[in-house]
Amino acid sequence: MADTIASRLEAAGVTLPEAAAPAANYVPSVSYGGLLQTSGQLPLDGGKLAVSGKLGAGVSLEDGQKAARLCAINILAQAKSAVSGDWSRLGRLLKLTVFVASDAGFTEQHKVANGASDFLVEILGENGRHSRSAVGVPALPMDAAVEIEALFEVA
Prior knowledge:
Blueprint: H1 2-11, E1 29-32, E2 35-38, E3 44-45, E4 48-49, E5 54-55, E6 58-59, H2 61-82, E7 90-101, H3 109-124, E8 131-137, E9 146-154
Helix pairs in contact: 2-3
């Protein structure tokens, strides 16, 4: 699995960034027993927020999916850091919780979330198939369009 994740990232043209430092009083991830829970990840690219605003009020579905994909890349960066770079320790992705900053009339949060889900299945293979919640919220930190947290099985 370790070579598979690295080779799939390379094939997708993705270089993981350094895991982002917390922006407030929390830790980026917590391991307990055989689980790894990441804190919510924003759509950062090059250390800067790449997609801000609300879906249905200026942010397109396509931009929302791009934001979700960026969140997923940052989730993998946090997971890699948590397992000290040893991809063989990362087991199945159990669940994603996707928060989408949404205008009151926007109801396609599930389609936004596919930007992350599709990417994670591509990179993690069968271990990337996960349960998921996609929730519309009025606002997210730093005016991010999307924030995603993940729960993994780890060895």
